[in-house]
């Protein structure tokens, strides 16, 4: 910049603020973000949608979705002094993303949502956002900011939509016409009155593939997802038993679900990630269910170190795999016998919640 911003930004020339906004986007790209936008704080429309969703109980056991009140939809209540939100996007799709759906048909494998195959995105994006804030600080001096990456009551998709990074699709994920939806989001709450970007417009049209093909019918209508039916919720957020009527619909999905992204036409434009930290780890990528089920808690912690998967804990991991083993379609009697043996061998050493899922899995194999 030609001159540092005034600490009293009310007297800062608009052209200086516009120049800073352009520089921030450039710095963001240099740090590995695939898109950077700036949003204002008006989330009134999204607040109404959230309140209606919560009133219907569609958040299930995710109590954190309502315990912060309006701080989620009013950024200045969460961080006093916030005037704008810098929203960033980072692609995570592995090179074989177009073939990943085929793994769902290989019932002997454990399918992990593609976002969780590499390093925990919370760590990656948070570190880069802090670097971006430090770069701004070098340019203009001290300013107020806070970094968020799916780590606080933040309406990240709504803010990203306002920042022009994409639109919220009928499946509730953010979509971009040039890269689809295989990306992470992060935010930098700032006290600078930067010029805002034009909000993205919706391009879902009459398409309803995500609604029609959701395995559990969790997308109950356009832009309405009942988390209590969603496989991602059931395998990640839920700590108790998975409802019996839904278990057979999980297939071999042991951590999350990507089906609504697989069927979305916009994902034909998906871009392979440029971030080495998101490279899939061999220990958890499309491994045989029996091998994953055999992990002790120590092995689980070792193989998921630095991974988003670790947060569900070993018990939920075993629960999910037990359900997948119950859904498996063994190629022969020897494979079926191996599954039954693994379930029976593990049964005495797990808690009551996991044991109940093991018993269900054994029932599926008529034991």
Automatic annotation (TrEMBL):
Enzyme class (EC, first level): oxidoreductase
This protein's pathway: tRNA modification; tRNA-queuosine biosynthesis
4Fe-4S ferredoxin-type domain residues: 192-224
Listed Pfam families: Fer4_16, QueG_DUF1730
Record localization: Cytoplasm
Record InterPro entries: 4Fe4S_Fe-S-bd (IPR017896), 4Fe4S_Fe_S_CS (IPR017900), QueG (IPR004453), QueG_DUF1730 (IPR013542)
SUPFAM superfamilies documented for this protein: alpha-helical ferredoxin (SSF46548)
Catalytic activity of the protein: epoxyqueuosine(34) in tRNA + AH2 = queuosine(34) in tRNA + A + H2O
Cofactor note: Binds 2 [4Fe-4S] clusters per monomer.
Listed PANTHER family: EPOXYQUEUOSINE REDUCTASE (PTHR30002:SF4)
Protein name: Epoxyqueuosine reductase
Species for this entry: Arenicella chitinivorans
Gene: queG
């Amino acid at each position: 910049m030609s001159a540092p911003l005034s600490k009293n930004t009310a007297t800062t020339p608009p052209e200086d603020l516009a120049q800073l906004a352009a520089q921030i986007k450039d710095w963001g790209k240099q740090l590995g973000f695939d898109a950077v936008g700036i949003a204002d704080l008006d989330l009134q429309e999204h607040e109404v949608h959230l309140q209606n969703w919560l009133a219907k109980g569609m958040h299930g056991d995710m109590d954190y979705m309502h315990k912060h009140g309006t701080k989620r939809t009013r950024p200045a209540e969460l961080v006093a002094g916030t005037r704008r939100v810098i929203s960033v996007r980072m692609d995570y799709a592995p090179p074989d993303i177009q073939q990943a759906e085929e793994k769902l048909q290989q019932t002997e494998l454990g399918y992990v949502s593609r976002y969780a195959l590499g390093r925990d995105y919370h760590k990656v994006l948070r570190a880069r956002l802090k670097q971006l804030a430090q770069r701004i600080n070098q340019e203009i001096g001290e300013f107020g900011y806070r970094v968020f990456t799916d780590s606080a009551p933040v309406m990240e998709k709504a803010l990203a939509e306002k920042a022009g990074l994409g639109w919220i699709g009928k499946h509730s994920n953010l979509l971009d016409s040039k890269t689809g939806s295989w990306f992470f989001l992060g935010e930098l709450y700032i006290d600078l009155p930067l010029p805002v970007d034009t909000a993205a417009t919706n391009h879902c049209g009459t398409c309803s593939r995500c609604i029609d093909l959701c395995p559990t019918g969790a997308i109950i209508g356009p832009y309405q997802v009942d988390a209590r039916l969603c496989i991602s919720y059931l395998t990640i957020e839920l700590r108790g038993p998975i409802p019996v009527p839904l278990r057979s619909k999980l297939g071999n999905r042991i951590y999350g679900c990507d089906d609504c992204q697989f069927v979305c036409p916009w994902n034909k434009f998906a871009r392979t990630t440029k971030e080495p930290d998101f490279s899939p780890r061999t220990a958890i990528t499309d491994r045989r269910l029996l091998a994953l089920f055999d992990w002790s808690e120590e092995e689980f912690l070792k193989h998921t170190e630095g991974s988003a998967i670790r947060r569900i804990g070993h018990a939920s991991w075993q629960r999910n795999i037990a359900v997948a083993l119950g859904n498996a379609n063994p190629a022969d009697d020897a494979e079926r016998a191996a599954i039954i043996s693994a379930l029976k061998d593990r049964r005495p050493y797990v808690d009551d919640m996991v044991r109940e899922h093991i018993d269900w899995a054994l029932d599926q194999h008529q034991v």
